[in-house]
Structure formats: C-alpha cells, structure tokens
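Exercise 3.2. Students should predict the tertiary structure of the chain below and write it as structure tokens, then compare their answer with the key that follows.

Predict this chain's 3D structure.
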Amino acid sequence: MNETEIPGGERVPAAAGAAWLLEHRPLTWLDVLHLHHIDFEDLPTLERLLDACLEEGVRVVFTAHDTHPMVGGANGFNARLRMLHSADIGWVCLTEGSVKKLSELIGERVDAAVIPHGYVAAPESLVDLEREPSSSAGRYLMFGASRASRDQLSTMANWSLGTTDPRGTLHLLLRAFSPADFAEGGRAPLLLETARRDPRIRLTMRPYPTDEEVTKAGLAADALLLPYLWGSHSGQLELAFDLNLLPVCSLTGHLPEQYQQHKGMVEEPEWFDWSHGHPNLFGEKFLAALEHATARLGSGKRPLDRGFLEYRAHEHATILDDYAHVYGSGQ
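Answer key:
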C-alpha cells in the first residue's frame, strides 16, 4: 500500500514509519502490517504500534533481513528483536542460518517461516534486454548508499591501483550525498578525489537510483563489487544472480547460504574472507579476489541466463504463496 491513497485521501509514504501509522488510526484501512527494517524505530513507539495492531485486529509479520544492526548498536537492536519475539506476530527469515543466529541473540528458539529473498530484477523486465557488448576487459560495478557496512573508498583505491589493464573500467552508481558524508570523518571528499585520479573510474550520482537505472548499469558491467565489512543478507548479491554478473563478495553473514539456494544454476561468487583476521587484511584479501575475478572474466561473454530467469519467475510465485500463508494462517 506504500505510495497509494487510503480512505480520507492521504497517501501512504514510500517508507512509512511507526509514528506515521499511529497518527492514522484506526488502522482499519489495512489487514496486515509487514515490518522489514526496525533499526530506525524507537522501542516505545514500535511497542505502541504493535499494541494498536492487536487492538484493531491487524496481523503483523516481521521479515528479519538482518541479524546484525545496520544502524545503531547491538543492544538496541537486540531489545527490538526480543520485544517482537514476545508479541503475537509472524516471523520470516531469509535463510535457515539466520533463524539459528536470531535464536541465539534472543535466547529462545524463533518460530519463523524461511522464505528466500527472491529476484531483484523482475524476469519480465529483462525479456527484451541483454548485456551490452564490449571489448574492454573487466567492467566492474559498485552501487548503493555509502553505508558503514561496506567500504567503497578502500575498494575503489585498491581497484584503481591493482588493476593494470588500461581497458578495465569501474562504474560507481551512487545515491546522493548528505552533509554527514562531508562532516568530520566523512569519506565523500576522499572518494571523489580518488575517482578523479583514474579516468577508468566513472561516477554517476542519482537522488535514489531506480530499478531501471540499476539494471541498465548492471547490463553495462561484467562483475559486481560487494565489499561488505559486515552484513546478514544481500539484495545486491541476488541482483548479480539475476543479471549473470560475477559477484566479488565478502564472505560474511548468511551470503554463502544465499548462493547455496541457487547452486548449480548460477556461478559461484569470488569470495574473499577476512573475518577471522586483522582488519587491515581486508584490502589484501579483496585485491587477491579481484585478480581471480579478472581471470575468470577473461573466459568469455556473460549473456543473461534465460533458464535461470524462468526459474526466478517460478520461485517468485512460490514466495508469494508462502507469504500469503504467513499473512493469513496465524502461523
């Protein structure tokens, strides 16, 4: 219902928060409230929203995308998880590993349906599309907001200094910077300065890249850089599978299980694992993986896999059925 009109004429925000929902009681205009990311909600407001849903007969479902907070500290994140666990709501996890991890964090077994992430680029949107041909070697893409959980700056510097082929390219598709990106400790100035020193690096800034813009950038690349410092699950990894991009990806969280769900149908990412070593090993591990990826990309073209996209459509139908069961069964 996000961005649609509700009775009374108001429009639901694209990213509706708990406070907005509480301001629009009674919640008779919805049947199910589906929570995704709870990091930005303060505990009392979230608790009031759950109470309101209980009073007004609204089913609540929570998809636990993260087992590590993306924003804020672990204590606040775990407190939110425990509060949700104590409420009569449905839980969904993307992997079996995340069910186990969340159960450890909460201290009790989480009774959750396991429903995979699914596609990012809808198969029907790719029917008439194909990867852009190129004679250049190693076209790399990195995109998204400048989050603390992924290191765009060191990755770009290591790519620039470690890639000797003058035909190689790196495209950064970025969300618009905010003042915080330029405040003391912000990395935006260094990122811009590094990009200016290498003509093979191209920056594209969008207010918020659309699905079409991200897909277009992916089809003009061969590999996707995923330099996570930490993380639980990755939609970008699923996009790489959709577009047959070679992911160069940190071995973190439950990302290997995301790959295992499609093993045999997609190419295995070029993993780099630095999680058990010194933090300063991140660049060393990444650069070694980049060299391996470059060698793998030299083996031929990477057309879209129509068979995998057909599988994605069937997978999506199953995902919708699974969510309908969680929404309506009281499970």
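Discussion points: The CA atoms of residues 200 and 232 lie 31 Å apart. The longest strand covers residues 169-175.
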